[in-house]
# Entry
Amino acid sequence: MNLKQLLIDRFGVDLNLAYAEAVPPLLAQILQRRTHRNYVGRPVPDELIDLLIAAAFSASAKSDFQQATVIKLKDASKRQAIAAHFPAMPWIGTSPAFLVFCGDARRLERLGTLRNHPQRNGDLEAFLNASVDAALAMQTFILAAENVGLGCCPISVIRNQMATVTRELALPDGVFPVAGLCVGYPAGAGHISMRLPPSVTVHTDRYDDTNLVSEIESYDRRRAARHATPREQQRNPKKFGYADFYGWSEDKTRQAAEPEGASFAAYIRGHGFSFDGA
# Structure
């Protein structure tokens, strides 16, 4: 597939990039990335999962602190205890493999005590560093998994059920889930989610969102033309009503207007992080 078509599939517009060479396979793979929630029954070999985790931990890590941990959830009862909270997402319980990528500020703090350099690792910087390490590892896992024919679906919603997740994964203070990850061989081709164009997300020398309104209006229309949201899937019409045109920005601002994650914030503050800069 040529670069022009790859970019149209991803952004809905021709970006007119002047790159004249053949698109390297890895770049083409990334541009065609899809989220997969349905899988065939074929199991994913344990040794392949372990190899992909090794690739994941080859990702960059802040200051080489390496504050990420992966928990392979193989106990069916533990998975079902978590999945039971999310009946609209059955793939949490049915995907061939399920991993939880965690930020881990505990390990560095323990090592400081071990080496006689005790230092609390629970401020905002520590939380951010561990979160980014885990996210980088997870995205690297996803790219590696797709390269061998697997499909993945990140599950950030598990942070909404911290009491269950903490109990089932025995998470100590300083360790927190960034997201779960469903993994398996895809049952279908999936679809490419149209992304915001670089005219919105890429700035040169200074931040400039002068054209945000018109750019988002165009993006909403392009995206709806490809994958329109049915009226019955509009979020919380009892609160927001029904929109004549329901685009991406309407959907996402409705979602953001009903914040999630209260239990996660409370958990973090009570289990190793103060965010006070001390």
The first helix runs from residue 3 to 11.
